[in-house]
Write the structure tokens for this entry.
Amino acid sequence: MITAALSITRSPSKSPSTSNTSRIAPQYRPAMPSALVERLRARGLVLPDYAGGGLVNVASSVLEILKVRDESDPPPLRALDPTLTRGIRQVVVVLADGLGTAQLRALAASGDVPFIASLLTRAERGERAQLIEATTIFPSTTAAAITTLNTARTPQEHGNLAYFIWLEEFAQVTQMLRWGPGITRRGSYFDNASVDPRDFVKVPSIHGRIRSRGGASYVIEPEIFRQEAMTRMHASSATYTGYFLPSSMGVRLRGLIEERPWGERPAYIYAYWAGIDSIAHLHGPQSAEHAMEAALFDLDLSRALSGRTSDDTLVILTADHGHAFTDPDKLIDLVGDAELRSLLRNPLAGEPRLVFLHTDEPARVKEHLERRYPGAFLLIDRDEAIDAGLFGRGDGEIARRRVGEVIAMLTDDRAASIVRVDGQTFRHRGSHGGMTPAEMNIPVLAWRA
């Protein structure tokens, strides 16, 4: 039930009403239940909600509010209180990388994020603020999620499916944030001037669509991302506003909101904070370091957005995923598993919590994993995952090429080594990519500024 006074909403478990469903493009309607879906739910795992309660619907809501959305787009957030969007001329989306719902609630309860906690209190009271408990996309990872936010399309549609993907186009495992060889820390295929990033874009960006309809679009990200592959592919139509240190993100954001260089046109601002994700990987999502980084983010956000008196800006704070705690001493070394490698057509890819195995012998691969690592992996057939709509909607051909025939997911406190980067193995204390609540559940905190 959604009313103007009810501002904390658990969205993923809901389905659109019959009348709303009829206005949703068929590919974005809720998927029919399947044996795989029931198996995942029975294990307490969280399914992505592409039909109105997920990250893709945040992007679609931006288009809706700015009057750019059309019938080919996913539905907007079904739970978003319409009183929050009336008269809005500017939409700001702040993405806190890695700040899942459970992490945000714990930080607010501990007093580490007082500004955000005050917004949560406003949401509880229905004071022009709302918290929607949403889901991210699948896999729960930055490369897929940021592309979804930039395009209002699911991973299956845009093809940026995981952090590491085997790309036939380059015949190697690719790190998909920079579109470069997965086994190195630096370098992009697009460093070669003869290779145009636009040739590999599967879907248009929301920035270009907003600008084509007379609006303005801005991206606030670290300066080092300005020429990165993801920016060139999906945000080239936006005005790029870079910052050199994280503390300047809020300064850039406040400056844009106050100066309004777009004049009377509607505007979209996307601002990105990376540090919470980085710290959660290194120290874990419950660490003192994680709390300190979140406190810095909270201060930066407060300086940017508190004390403003105008009422035509909607701010949405969200995340691309959360983090599950992973014990580095329990790391499963799949890279060093020579027998497994002998059964694969291509090298390992995917995520440390969600491994893509390209093989012509799926039965033997599954038998090997079950025998050597008993009870560790939840094994999923690629086509079953696509048919169940886990990666999204639309033509599944790109996913079939980029996802291995066998998907091996971890659901406890373990991760797997899948790629050695410059000879190094990731030994993280926080990880994501899988379907546990800690990884999948994300906040959508909206308020009028």
